[in-house]
Each structure stands twice: as C-alpha cells, then as structure tokens.
Amino acid sequence: MPIYEYQCKACGHRLEKLQKISAAPLTDCPSCDASELNRLVSAAGFRLAGGGWYETDFKTSGKKNLAGDSGSGSSSASPGDGAAA
User: Fold this and answer.
1) Is residue 74 part of a domain?
2) CA Rg, the chain, in Å?
3) Percent share of the chain, pLDDT over 90
4) How far lies 26's CA from each of 61, 79, 85, in Å?
5) Is residue 77 part of a domain?
6) Where is this region: Disordered (predicted)?
7) Is residue 8 within 8 Å of 25, Cβ to Cβ?
8) What's the rounded Cα separation, in Å, for the pair 26 and 23?
9) Is the pTM of this model over 0.70?
10) With CB atoms counted within 10 Å of each terminal CB, which end of the chain scores lower, N or C?
C-alpha cells in the first residue's frame, strides 16, 4: 500500500497516511477538524538493494556489481562520462 501525503489548507498541518490505492482521499484535518485536507503530489521513494534481479539478470556480464565483488569495475566513472554535450 502506498503512503500518501496530505496538507490542510486551513491550518497548514501535514501528515502521511498509509492507504489502499482504491481508498477515497482524506478530507478532514485531524488537527483543526476542517474539511480542507488535500492530497499532495510527491515523488515515490524506493530503492533496489543487494544482489537482486537487476544485478544478476539484466546487466551485461562486464558491468555486474554483485555483493562480495572486490570492485573489479571502475567506481569513478559516472553514466554520463564520455558523452558529448
């Protein structure tokens, strides 16, 4: 279930709520009881860590960075290095 952020127009109170996608948005502020609560648009935050599907299945053999590797690849190169601007 996603975590939604809300902010009250009346008092400025902000909160986060774990809700189903199909659930109706909240409208009543728990701080001031006004019906001025709006759902905010925010970036989703997640991280794929460890030796999961991306590391083992989708990278080319020369670019794998598996846990336990002794840093055989170049760690100072960034994805945009070498590209003409």
Assistant:
1) no
2) 22
3) 42
4) 48, 41, 46
5) no
6) 64-85
7) no
8) 9
9) no
10) C
For residue 6, report the phi and psi dihedrals to the nearest 5 degrees.
-130, 155
Owner of token pair 């400025």: 12
Do 64 and 56 meet the contact criterion of CB atoms below 8 Å apart? yes
Length of the chain: 85
Domain count, the chain: 1
For the record, the structure tokens of 44 come out as 């989703």
d(CA 6, CA 37): 6
- Which pLDDT tens digit goes with each residue over 12-52? 999 999 999 899 999 999 999 999 999 999 877 776 666 66
Torsion of CA 53, 57, 58, 61, to 10 degrees: 130
Domain that holds residue 20: 3-39
